Amino acid sequence: MLTCLKGGHVVDPANGIDEVRDIFIKDGKIVDAPAEAGSANETVDCSGMVVMAGAIDIHSHIAGGHVNTARLLLPEWHRAFSARPGETALSKVGWTTKETGLRYAEMGFTTVVEPAMGPQAALHAHLELADIPIIDKATLVVLGNDDMLMSMIRDGESDEAIADYVLWTVDASKALGVKCINAGGSAAFKENVRSYAFDTEVPDYGVSSRQILKTLQKAVTDAGIPHPLHVHCNNLGVPGASADAAEATIRASEGMPLHLAHIQFYGYGIEGRRGFSSKGEELARLINENPDVTVDIGQVMFGQTVTISSDEMRQFAGRAQASPGKSIIMDQEANGGGVVPMNYKEKSFFNALQWAIGLELFLLIEDPSRVFFTTDHPNGAPFTTYPDIFALLMDRNVREKWIEALPKSVKKWTSLPEIEREYTLAEIATMTRAAPAKLLGTRDRGHLGSGATADISVYRPNDDKAKMFGAAAYLFKDGVKVVENGAVVAKPYGRALTLKTHSDAKMGSRLDRYFDEAYGLQSRWFKVEGSALRRETPFREVPCLS
Amino acid sequence: MTTAWIDGQPVSSGEAIREAAKLLSMSRLPLVTGRFDDISALREAARVAGFSGGVLDHSDLGRVAPLIEALRDNGIIRISPGEVRRRADRVLVVGADPFAGSEAVFEQIFAVDPDLGAKAKGGQREIVLLGPDEPGRFSEVKGHVRTVGCPADQLGDAIGVLRAGLGGKPFGDGPFEEGAARALAGWLKDAAFAAIVFDATELDAISIESVAGLVSDLNAETRASALPLTAGSVYGAAEGAIWVTGFPLRTAFGRGDPEHDMMLNDGAWLISSGESDARIMLSYDETALDVADVPTILLSTAEEPAGEGARVIFKIGRPGVDHPMVHHEPRFGSFVSTPAEHHGMATNAADILSAIADQLGKAHHSNDEARA
Ligand SMILES: [Zn+2]
């Protein structure tokens, strides 16, 4: 069957297209226009509408043990979803795997990456992903606080052996890439270290955060994993130390690709009587000058949310500010982590400045293919706030209104009111479609060229950009219409995108012994079997770089 | 071989599935319950409850309800067993025998000396048993074991006293001998890494919150973490239910959005009060069950499950034996998949539940859960 999306304004920066034209779909793929005009079996009238590839979220905590712990800790917001829809952004998310898929689809998203899957939580994460309808998913597996890696570095093992270990972990956990979260910080915290930075050594191992990060960066690059090492730097959220950590990490990229997550949480200086100021301009300049580095923002939006992180040290420190005042902190084999509720208040100087710093970074980082659209869901805000963030980026007047509502003292401390830039549709499409696909190595998506997976979002233009991006006029997933007028009309299951790789047999038998002797665990428990997920096609493989 | 019966008469599984769906769809408030050892069955059971407007529960949920309550009302700092094994130089074991039913975890932790941490490694583990005065299974472990006597019904008080002792506040000795509480609090505080292990099915929510409070206070200056043990499959089932429905079981789907209530949606109460007028139940019990109280659809592993008074019966395989299963492995602190021990024809309960859910879904004209 040939379907024609007729007469839409196609915004496809990956292929240099920004004009009115038809898009054809056949068997779940985008195909060239047929030789005979009018031979389509089905025509969807898109005239007057904007047509883009399905959006891709590269960093959103949607599945796994820690996310599930947050659901356990905060049932009241689920109840809020049933009884008082729309009260808070978080309550609009709902609290289940199903809601996650539906809400993303309604906004025109078709691929979402869960960025913090512990090797031990891999099956748990994939079970949850398998229960999220419509969208495709992928995961990043977390290394960098594990005894195995730190021991290998300490013992001076070869780059090859370390790459084998990394690939074994990626293969076993069915991940797409690797993330490193406060490298060595959780391990140091287990030794009761409370202050930790890029060149601090982890006690008992004698390896520094820098060494761990550089080792993983090299292993990921050598192994041909398309997505660069995804880094959560040290000292997240700490005024002064956070900006130092980001700067040190950016400078340590040293010509190899590196992705820095939720950079907004590192844009904090110590000026002023409150000891809290914006480093947004400096950080943006540094990123502009370092082409190896990509970042996502982790935008803060106001309202109740919950922070979910495998940065155990940071979450432990943050529990003092928990709102409501309860939290769950986890000591586990590698990273561990924590779940701490958080309420960002518009009237708080600190929270308002966090909001402004995120937007400064969005707007001052010049290349839309190196800055990615995230709230670090749900850490900065739930993903249901995305429509408002699109409006803030695309419309200076909207920003002015929001700034008016902030405490007056905030304006002195941010350059945001002076920034005139407004994102264009093409820049939005680059940031949320073309660039993420390239960054993840998923070349079948993020664009509308012939052969691409037919994940296509269609929006009705509106001066109110939040309205436009909040409800897709249509969404096609693998060529099937799943959303119409902002409402889900079909709920097929997508797949998890996994890296096509293989693991070294010798490393496999070494790890069989290691997990048994060190932890009393069976190495097979780390392996995700597709059959356990009860979906016809649980995975789609993404090739390594050759 | 017959694997399905209606009113004791052998039928095809297709007939039984249609009859089960009919019974559930006609029910005012069906109860979906049992022992969901296999998380695959739990995921499908949630669909059955959703499509039939029923209540999803687990027959053992009452055992972990205090833990769930304590975690969500108060929070905790907790640790995985593997990390206790390697890192905890001091372990406080609370209760008469918290490792009963968790023998594999016991073996995992105590078979070796701690070997991680600048201060902990190279030394022997110190273990204090806070409970009735006998070492039991600890008589042969590695490490130094001693007992601090405490009656089982005063464990919660004892933890409260330890917490006060830690804070240096004036406090009574409670169940402790004079000076013992302060000494024990100091012992925890001086650990390289202290672990407090307890059977979460034996303590009430207040006592669990007390343990969490003690651990929280210890972490002001040192490192300590709690390990709640919950033998059996129920905690894993609650975890699974949380992502599928948003809540740890005892969730009703009768009014559209899921509603969770530990008391109102207690399966046993729903049956005894007559609130539920039908039930679908998963049983691994080999003995005959009395299910004559309400019309019941029974999925049973019993050798000859017919003739137990159930309206519809399916004979199912044993998870992890006759077919693969996905379950929560306490040693791992997460889910694992286990292959079947042998290849056979036995039916997977998840497939039966899935077929019943599909049948119910058809009646809803739902486009849900197309298996793409
Ligand atoms: Zn994150």
Automatic annotation (TrEMBL), chain A:
Domain named Amidohydrolase: residues: 42-465
Check the record and name the SUPFAM superfamilies matching this protein.
Composite domain of metallo-dependent hydrolases (SSF51338), Metallo-dependent hydrolases (SSF51556)
Q: Offer an example of a GO molecular function term for this protein.
A: hydrolase activity, acting on carbon-nitrogen (but not peptide) bonds
- By its UniProt entry, which InterPro entries does this protein fall under? Amidohydro_3, Formylmethanofuran_DH_asu, Metal-dep_hydrolase_composite, Metal_Hydrolase, Metallo-dep_Hydrolases_sf
Pfam families found in the cross-reference section? Amidohydro_3
Q: Which NCBIfam families match?
A: one_C_dehyd_A
Q: What is this protein called?
A: Formylmethanofurane dehydrogenase, subunit, putative
Q: Which organism is it from?
A: Fulvimarina pelagi HTCC2506
TrEMBL record, chain B:
* Domain of life the protein comes from: Bacteria
This protein is called Formylmethanofuran dehydrogenase
